[in-house]
Amino acid sequence: MYNFENVKGLYEDGYRCIYYDNTENNPSVYLKNFESEDSKEIQFENEEQFAQFKDYLDSLNTLRD
Could you tell me the pTM of the whole model? Predict the structure, then answer.
């Protein structure tokens, strides 16, 4: 089950989004930790959750600018 706080925790642990797929009914993202070479797939239950994740990524990118 999707939990936004868990996704944020993964980012804090060094995971980064390497791909997201929004072409099916259940959008999903693929995260990878390049230090440990571990990867995770997160499936969203609906478009709203996917949009929340994308907004989070956009906010991180804005901080880098």
Answer: 0.80
